[in-house]
Amino acid sequence: MPKSSEPLALRSRRVLADGVISPKTVFVENGRIAAIAPYEVEIPVGTQVEDLGSLVLMAGLTDVHVHVNEPGRTDWEGFATATRAASAGGVTTLIDMPLNSTPVTTTASAFEAKLLAAQGSLAIDVGFWGGVVPEHLEELPGLLASGVLGLKAFLVHSGIEDFPNVTAADLEKALPLLAPTGLPLLVHCELDTSGRPPVEGIPNPRSYRQYLASRPGSWELDAIALVLDLCRRTGARVHIVHLSCAQALPMLREAKAEGLPVTVETCPHYLVLSAEGIPDGDTRFKCAPPIREDQNRQALWEALADGTIDFIATDHSPCPPELKRLEVGDFTKAWGGIASIQFLLPLVWTEAQKRGFGLADLERWLCTKPAAFAGLGATKGRLAVGYQADLVAWDPEASFSITAETIVYRHKVSPYENQSWQGSVHSTWLSGQKVWSSGRPSGPFMGEALIRTTQAFDTVDQTQAREALKRCCASERWIDAVLARRPFGDFHALSAAATEAWQGLTLEDTLQAFSGHAKIGGGHRTNREQAGLAGATETTLDKLKKANEAYAAKFGFSFLVFATGKTAEEMLKLLEIRLARTKEEEWVEASIQHHKITLFRLAQIERTLK
Ligand SMILES: [Zn+2]
User: Fold this and answer.
1) How far is the CA of 464 from the centre of ligand 1 (A)?
2) Given phi > 0 = left and psi -120 to 50 = alpha, else beta, which region is 559?
3) Sign of the Cα pseudo-torsion (604, 608, 609, 610, in order)
4) Tens digit of each residue's pLDDT (9 = 90 or more) over 144-172
5) d(Cα 88, Cα 117) in Å, to the nearest integer?
6) How far is the CA of 235 from the centre of ligand 1 (A)?
7) Contact residues for 291 (Cβ-Cβ < 8 A; gap 6+)
8) Is the pLDDT of residue 443 over 80?
9) Residue environment code for 548-560, b if the CB has 16+ CB neighbours within 10 A, otherwise e
């Protein structure tokens, strides 16, 4: 983390910390909040002071749903403009979606490409969601071990060719991979079970009513029911992104009461806008799921109040203006997405304060809860001692108008244009450094890529760390080589060390590693990674056992396969194919499978130590 060079004291008559507003002086040192003192406290010599008067000083916002679109679609947005716009709105942390970049973030190497693209272009801190697509399920162990904060999937077509939707069967395979890591699956919940042709079929493509009817609330209800069922069966954390349909709320309330690990977000556009006010042909309002009727909007606010909806995220989804097809106003062909990261705070505040909500509600919905959801709750999302000094000073009473001139993100298109909004951001600090001030960016790009940390693994003693690594791979030499590189800081460094150590092993070490695995089938019903065997017939198990014996006899080591999420039949099929190969081919394949298993177990390491 870049550190602020000299100690800083920020004074305000309205410091908002953990729901309480009071006059305070906030001391910042080395990028963190060092102390929160009474307003009148004496300032030590050498401390820079800034008196913010009665501006509200609170924790910077975290937006967990942002499409930055870089690399590959930087003409749609990009890290530099997205993060600058975020800083202009008091957002100090954003989490990037695995689409619509090219490549989409569905493999470890694509994640690598994204990290490279982000380097030197971040005005604020940025974390990353990985993506689940049907053809890359086998890549998930490596992706999870590389440091993404969770995974995202679609149940309808995403609009991007290389990010197709998953089916329930795909999620049956993906969730057992995710559950042991404790990371969430974020799901775009729309599911079309009608068998009707998609949206192109509406009679008048300029009609908002018809567009709305083409993506009915029942799509959301069916999708959410499916996701809750999977959550119940796998124990994996699930998160409903951009909830639009309020009819889903009773189902979500029940799921939460039942204790399912489910969280829910909604977006400013569902809270601020309603279908009744959207003119035909005005595709600036197109998003999916669509903005619904006013009555629906009221219910979403009630769900925010009672906590059924956990927090608010923007789903900032920009595109070049021509893709919005504003001239023709065709809702079926326009890109669906609304860019709003810069205006998250005023949009929500304008509506919230009319409804009697206060600043403490805002802090919960925009700072504390989203940061905690992304796994950043120990360092971000609160104005508290020891926390990162990510702060925003803003005026809740001031109003302003959104115009092309005030928009900082790349394309100056907004459904909120030329209207008055309440709540104006004055200054934003990242780790105690001012990154936005009085309408202008301040300082260099100093944001960091937030890769999942290995803090627990880094801080346990050597014996515990060794034990944890033993569960990942049985090679003593591999364990020594990885241990020697502790502490790692994050999963990206840990998985790189694990891979290098694996590549440096001798033949004997490799055999030792192979021998650490339980045989597939033949009485290993209690092995969680082989849970797919549970539904197998005796005949299949018997075939597996015999094929295993034949395999070991032919190659001199046991059959190794990444088993998590696979059925017994799938394992048997793979075993039969591989039994026909040469020893050289199988040595390579076993090594690949072994390392995949190792990375998958590494991705769980933090959780086993907590
Ligand atoms: Zn989105």
Assistant:
1) 40
2) beta
3) positive
4) 999 999 999 999 989 889 999 999 999 99
5) 22
6) 24
7) 212, 244, 269, 270, 273, 274, 275, 278, 285
8) yes
9) beebeebbebbbb
Q: Which residues lie closer than 8 Å to 558 by C-beta, 6 or more apart?
A: 514, 515, 517, 519, 520, 548, 551, 552
**DSSP string across 420-488:** EEEEEEEEEEETTEEEEETTEE-SS----EEPPB-HHHHHS-HHHHHHHHHTT---HHHHHHHHTT---
Tell me the whole-structure pTM to 2 decimals.
Answer: 0.96
Please give the Cα distance from 137 to 270 (Å, whole number): 32
Query: How many CB atoms lie under 10 A from the CB of residue 474?
Result: 19
Q: Which residue has the tokens 């190794």?
A: 560
Q: 338 CA to middle of ligand 1, Å?
A: 9
- Tell me how far the alpha carbon of residue 583 lies from the centroid of ligand 1, in angstroms: 46
Residue 28, burial from CB neighbour count under 10 angstroms (0-12, 13-18, 19+): buried
Which of 492, 211, 453, 424 is closest to 332 using CA atoms? 211
Q: At 192, which amino acid appears?
A: D
Q: What is the pLDDT of residue 531?
A: 84
The pLDDT tens digits for 571-584 are 999 999 999 999 99
What is the second-level CATH architecture of the domain 58-382+402-421+442-450?
A: Alpha-Beta Barrel (3.20)
DSSP tag of 20: E
Q: Using one digit for the tens of pLDDT, what is the confidence trace for 34-57?
A: 999 999 999 999 999 999 999 999
Beta 151-154 vs 185-188: how paired, if at all? Answer: parallel
Model confidence at 532: pLDDT above 90: no
Which CATH class for the 455-609 domain? Answer: mainly alpha
Query: Could you give the percent of the chain with pLDDT greater than 70?
Result: 98
In the reported structure, the alpha carbon of residue 591 is separated from the centroid of ligand 1 by a whole-number distance in angstroms of: 37
CA of 66 to the centre of ligand 1 (A): 7
State both tokens at 324: 């919005």
Length of the chain: 610
Distance 371 CA to ligand 1 centre (A): 18
How are beta strands 8-17 and 20-29 bridged, if at all? antiparallel
Domain segments of the chain as ranges: 58-382+402-421+442-450, 455-609
If you measure from the C-alpha of residue 166 to the centroid of ligand 1, how many angstroms do you get, rounded to a whole number? 16
Specify the amino acid at residue 408. Answer: V
